[in-house]
Fold each of these.
Amino acid sequence: MLTAFTSPGSFLRGNLHCHSSRSDGDPLPERVCAFYRDAGYDFVSLTDHFMERFGFPVVDTTPFRQEGFTTLMGAELHAPGLGNGEIWHLVANGLPLDFAAPAGDETAAELARRALDAGAFVSLAHPGWYGLTLEDALALPQVHAVEVFNAICDWETGRGDGGYLIDQLLNRGRTTGVIATDDAHRYHGEFCRGWVMVKATENTPDAILAALKSGAYYASQGPEIRHVEIDGDWLNVETSPVDSVWLVGHAARSKVVMGPGIAHARLPLEKFAGGWARLVVSDAEGRRAWSNPLHL
């Protein structure tokens, strides 16, 4: 949690999961990048479906970088074998352009390991949408993050939440980062509804990828988490104006500060000692922001 507020650099806004006409999205890759650039984002990672029917694309978006706007190469990786019969959905940001197509018998664990070894930031996409279980997730090597919010799954199915899996993983001792994404395909109602704020020393792919891997980011639908610090047995939090500030932890452990227009909150940590806690804030419109977990 604290890395994002103790690391040098500035916060950069980015989307780590979206699609183009190179797989099952509508716009051309150039248009996708323009959407996010024109919306004020600092970076985007185009993650088309890495499937045979689409030609296993890792789309080269370097031509669409401009001053103040950059891109990470990426893809959404798939393999059979989910417990409920669905295929896996793993998002990999920072893939090399020559990332090899999966062998016919490659498992999700093997595919995830290969993406990690290639230097990618790997996350579990939209777990609520397709019923990803704790047992499924534990069958993979340690990945970097889980989508706490996926905009298109929320928009189209009401299953955009991944908090349940994040908490279950943390309860089992498996650490994970917390990201929010659009997973945009049509670029209508699912566009610019969830993103990451990454604390990086410069707006370059290498600096952003390094910051992601170090945990120097938080996820948001709108509210800003401006500073977080530990002060003895207390957590001090500074935000844009919000109405609720929660700390949630192991099992049913939680603390909350509520009221209109909160910008500073102080929450006791004693209940979370020896475990974990993660920060969630919500503004008057119900939009949330989420920190990475803090291990106490």
Note: The chain has a mean pLDDT of 97.
Amino acid sequence: MTHSDDQAAAPDFPASRDSAFLSRRVDVPRIMLRPSVALHLVLATAIGLAVAALYTTLAPWLGAVRAVPPTLAFLAVCGLAAAAWRREQPAVIEIGPDSIAACSRHGARIAQGRLTGASQWGTSLLALDLRSGKRRATVLIAADSLDADAFRALAVRARCAAGR
């Protein structure tokens, strides 16, 4: 085998692959998402309220000092759950002709399928309900995670799916 045969057999960069997302099709438009400040603030507020509620519930029974360790343990579990939630948030939305796919920051496909009539939209949050066969997934997209035109385009798709 000569050097030229070796290059012809294995191209360095296949035309149908993207270095960031190896499973991505080139012909499908994609929208990059930023982490949503609003969703993070809502999550932090909910965790704070839950921790305060746990402490105020345990303090009369156990005493103020003895209620602190379980409260801190609960706070740690909530923090770990919030970190796992953040890792699994979509970073890219791929809009195909008949389906939508959401991919994480690491390129893993989180959800894929057709929009269903259960999708909800508002001025600051979209809840896209995706169905692929028997599998269903809901993807939350906050308005501050993408530009206004892309948010509007996704909202229009959700409204069209609701009208089916």
Note: The chain has two domains: 37-87, 92-162.
